[in-house]
Specification:
The chain is mainly beta. The chain contains one helix and 30 strands. The strands form three sheets. Strands 1, 2, 3, 5, 6, 9, 12, 15, 18, 19, 22, 25, 28 and 30 form a 14-stranded parallel beta sheet that branches. The protein is globular and about 60 Å long.
Length: 320
């Protein structure tokens, strides 16, 4: 058994051909993921697909060549180009009813082309790695960390994930990243460009760390940067942002960060700032709670109006 192999060994064809290569690449990815080879490498190029690329065996790694930036430009690296229907492009989930251990998906641009519902969907994983992945133009969500299906036997969450340099380019009402079941994860330098959807929707998530998180809203957009959802049945508890940069002028929107419900508790933001304008934090009710140490930022001709951190005392603001 080879420990490492190349996707071309399984019959993959690179290049843009109006979707003509999709069926061939569907078969190649399926064969590679079903093989006992631990690491599958994907050379730079465009790989047309029409069926979800599914990682469902323990320790399996699909590694591409990173060539993305934070915006919607064609990557010079490995690209998954969607030619299917309303499905996720990539699924990271177990084949059976027990959790998937240590899968990895790294170094890809995932182009949903306004058709695929989700760029990357995952559930029931432990120690998952998703690194240097960009999702472009999903219909619904860029990255969706989901609940396990009914009948799953193990813990069923996405536990202790390593999520590094994830980028979502979401247009219309699409959301950047949705956290419906994530625990103990570290997200390093995530970046979402969005329009009318929410950049980071925290709905069922606990004890996760966001390091240097960024959102950038299109000028005509109305979407929020972060939504802490703590309504009945949702638990959004004990999460930390270490640097949250909200970088678009809020035309048509007065709220940058929103929190509500008695299940949104003990969440903290250390180093909140706006790039173009000061962020606005809104509490949806008196049951919710959010701590943040600074509200300000946004360039203005007057220094005092920027509320620079060294001029304004740090704040601890909470509501319950």
């Amino acid at each position: 058994m080879a420990y490492r192999d190349n996707l071309f060994s399984f019959g993959a064809v690179a290049g843009s051909a109006g979707g003509a290569n999709a069926a061939t690449n569907d078969a190649a990815f399926a064969a590679a993921m079903a093989s006992p080879t631990r690491i599958i490498e994907c050379e730079p190029g465009v790989y047309e697909v029409s069926q979800p690329v599914t990682i469902d065996s323990n320790g399996k790694a699909l590694i591409g060549t990173d060539g993305c930036d934070a915006f919607n430009t064609m990557s010079s690296g490995s690209i998954l180009d969607w030619w299917g229907g309303a499905q996720p492009v990539v699924k990271i989930c177990p084949a059976g009813t027990s959790d998937l251990i240590a899968p990895e998906f790294s170094g890809f641009q995932v182009r949903c082309n306004g058709v695929a519902t989700i760029g990357v969907a995952s559930y029931a994983n432990r120690r998952m790695k998703i690194r240097r992945v960009q999702v472009v133009d999903p219909v619904t969500v860029g990255f969706h960390f989901q609940e396990a299906p009914v009948g799953h036997l193990d813990v069923g969450s996405n536990y202790d994930a390593d999520l590094d340099h994830l980028t979502a380019n979401a247009y219309g009402t699409a959301l950047g990243m949705v956290f419906d079941n994530l625990s103990g994860a570290v997200l390093t330098c995530p970046h979402v460009t969005h329009q009318n959807g929410i950049a980071y929707f925290l709905r069922r998530i606990d004890t996760c760390a966001f390091i240097n998180a960024n959102s950038s809203r299109h000028a005509e957009g109305t979407g929020m940067s972060v939504f802490f959802e703590g309504a009945a049945g949702k638990y959004c508890v004990g999460n930390r942002f270490f640097g949250l940069h909200c970088g678009a002028w809020p035309i048509g929107s007065t709220t940058t960060i929103y929190t509500r419900g008695d299940k949104a508790r003990q969440n903290r933001i250390y180093g909140l700032d706006g790039v173009d304008t000061p962020p606005v934090v809104t509490f949806g009710d008196t049951l919710t709670e959010l701590y943040y140490d600074y509200q300000g930022g946004g360039y203005t001709p007057t220094l005092a109006a920027e509320k620079a951190l060294d001029r304004v005392p740090k704040q601890v603001i909470r509501n319950y």
